[in-house]
Structure formats: structure tokens, C-alpha cells
Amino acid sequence: MQPDLLQQLRDLHLPTDPSWWPPAPGWWLLAAVMIAAVVVAIRKLQQVQVQRRPFRQARALYAALYAEFQAGNIDDRDYLNRSNELLKRLVIFGIGENRARQANDVEWLALLDTLAGSQAFTGGAGAPLGNQRFSSSPEADIEALHRLLDNFFANAKP
């Protein structure tokens, strides 16, 4: 009688599980794409921060100007002139609107209306920012002008 042939077979040996390292080429490609996307996103965020810096500074300067007016350190005329100067600087250097360099009175107010998307400068609370601010006693509703300017500085886009 022949010995049992099955007894003579060796046990099955399974191959070792594949290692997680090195990853397959597809994973390398995915990692490279993800790194590139992160780098592009960081650069875009930095660019947006640089573009928004003049607007943040203008808003902070305007808040300080209004606080100075509220404290009684400056009068209506100084408030109007300094607000107008701040607007001009923001429009020229922050937004890059070169038409603002020579714009005055109605042209200046119309440009501000265009940027604000309203008629509040030519026909509203912003009208004293035109040539009216040069009169000996400019008449302005400072609270309405403050709301208008605060809104303008908050919503101005580069």
C-alpha cells in the first residue's frame, strides 16, 4: 500500500502582503498634484491679502479719523477734507483708478458713485465731498456721511 500522498505535501505558503512603501506611481502623481494645488492656493491667498491691505488700512485710518471727529479734536471742514483725501488715496492707489487724479467736484463725486454703485455721493450725503467742502462753513450731515463712508470703505473692491 502506498503511503498517503496528501500527507507528503507541504503546507501552503502565502506570499507576503504588499508593503505600503513605496507607493504606486498613481499615488506619487496624486501627491505631486496636491502639493502643487496647495502651493497655488497659498500664493493666491497671499496675493489677495496684498491686494486687500490698502482697504484695511484705509478703513482703520477712517475709523481713527471719525473717532477724532467724535472727540471734538477736528471740525466739520477738517473732517470733510481728510475724508476726501483718504478716499482719493484709496481710489488712486488701492483701486488703481487713475481718472481720480484729476477728477474734482462733480466728476469726483460721479466716480465715487460709480465705484459705490449708488447715487449717494452726487445726490446724497456724500455731496459735501465735492467743492462744497471749500466753503467757509460747509454744511454736511456728518452722521449720514459717516454711514456712507463706512459702507464705502467696507465694501470697496480692488
Q: What does it look like?
A:
There is one protein chain. The chain has 158 residues and is an all-alpha fold. It has a domain at 54-155. Helix content is 61%, strand content 0%. The protein contains 5 helices and no strands. The longest helix has 46 residues, at 25-70. The chain is rod-shaped. The model has no long low-confidence stretch (mean pLDDT 92).
Structural key phrases:
158 residues, mainly alpha
Assembly type: single chain
- Low-confidence runs: none
Biggest beta-sheet profile? none
What is the helix fraction of residues, given as a range?
A: 55-70%
- Roughly how many Å apart are the termini? 97 Å
**Share of β-strand residues:** under 5%
Please report the number of helical segments.
Answer: 5
Rg, rounded, reads 34 Å
Structural class: mainly alpha
Mean pLDDT reading: 92
Order of helices and strands: HHHHH
The beta-strand count equals 0
> What is the molecular shape?
rod-shaped
